[in-house]
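Tutorial sheet, problem 5. The two components below are modelled jointly, 585 residues in total.
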Amino acid sequence: MEGIYAIWQRDLLKFFRDKARLFGSFTMPILFLLIFGGGLSGTMESMMGSMAGAGEGFNYVEFVFPGIVAMTLLMTSIFSSLSIIEDKDFGYMKEILVSPISRVSIAVGKMLGAATVATIQGIILFLLIPLLGLSYSIVSLLQVLPFMFLFAAALSGLGLLIASLIRSTQGFQMIVQVLVMPMIFLSGALFPINNMPAWMDIIVKLNPVTYGVDVMKKIMIDVDSLSPQVQNAMGLNLDVFGRPVTMIEEILFIAGFAALLVLLATFSFRRANA
Amino acid sequence: MEPIISVRGLTKTYKQTTAVNNIDFDVDQGEIFGFLGPNGAGKSTTINMICTMLAPTSGSITINGWNAAKQRGKVRESIGLIFQENTLDEKLTARENLMLHCRFYRVPKSRRAARIREVLEIVDLTDKENQRVDTFSGGMKRRLEIARGLLHYPKVLFLDEPTVGLDPQTRAHLWEYILRLKKKENITMFLTTHYLDEAEISDRVAIMDQGEIIAIDTPDALKRQLGGDIIELSSTDNEAARREVEAAVPEAEITVDDGILRIKVADSDKFVSTILKSLDTPVTSLNIRRPTLNDVFLAFTGRKISEAAED
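Model answer (structure tokens):
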């Protein structure tokens, strides 16, 4: 346990020390909020509104904000786990590997560290809520926190698995382009995933981020106050291949996904660093 | 007294090659054990097996009474490792680096603060405690690593080329710290180095070549085995000088290297006048010395360590 704690604590120490990284990591979500929230919201609202025949009820910024928080969780989790490649390059991994801590503790500690850092980043984004004129309830924000951590842990597990498979920091850019970007765009984080071509729909439904984003939206947005048409327009009635899914199922799926990834990551980590 | 490290029949084979071939040796408690050999001799492979980082093909290793194959965790708690390369987290302060190490090695909470102070004192870094490591010089980083390696009260400290990449003055200082440490903590040290003059501080040295230990003894005994002294001379015509010495002292062993005639004799006092008398070729320099570990290395491996390193 002490070992897990040490590895977790190191990641947090470094996160708060590295002001440039702390600051830089907000440029992307804020840029997205500006572009999507400001630039696109009018178009999106009239489009979605007329499509659903829902008129005024569709608030795009309210729709996209949880998606952008989820995007931040995804990016931060993956990048934080990839820091183990940096640790290998700078030699520190050796200090960890020769110590008596087990490989499982190293993987779990790294995963929790990355998930904590990602959750903190997500929480900092909440500060923008009043500025954007959004009205999520405090209760819903508190309720979404544990799920954010769970979701971030699953994504950190994914990052860890990737990190144990790629050898260099050069692989970094590639991972972002072939994995992270599609995972964001094909998840319903930025636009409703209605009426998609069949092949794209399959990818969307296989993408775990889809369910994470959906849960966050369902918790944060006051779904019951919206008319069924608006709910549909927002893509909040997610169905998987014809079968509607409940939020509980989605949460269980993310939890299972997290557990599976920790296992895989630990296994792959042990093999790579035996 | 039980040896602190005991290696029996240790072998490591890769597909085609045998890196370490059935070696046996003991390291006694509290001694400085120098482990020497050219690159590719199997030194690193052996150390990695002793430190539980690599599984042996066959053979057994016991450290501090623990079996290195079966009780990895216990072995790891019993040893401290100083690597060739820097393994500090430079973004953190000296103290933070040490604190993390305490956690990794489960140093009891109540002893951490005092122990950190103690090891920082040994390496004279007490006043740098709260500075970030990336502001440290190369020598300071090395010292901090040594301090870190000591934190968890290891029984054996492994120093793998601890002075590589440091300037001569820093190197000399570092050895002072290491000797001070040995006095203070009565710790066993397992040392590898390319600078054989540094290995002179060892109580015993082992020389490894081509996967086998070819010599193991105190530095003095190894030098005595070489038999006698070395007369080094250079002259205007080394080949002619060589023939003249050979004729006068048939029992001398003569090698020519870098324009220097190296003559090995049992007793330099007796032979130096004979040799000088026998020479018609003008002598440009003359040096008489006792053998060093460099000579021992040369005699056992047939190479100088600097040449071997370039292989």
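Marking note: Chain A has a mean pLDDT of 84. Full credit if you identified this.
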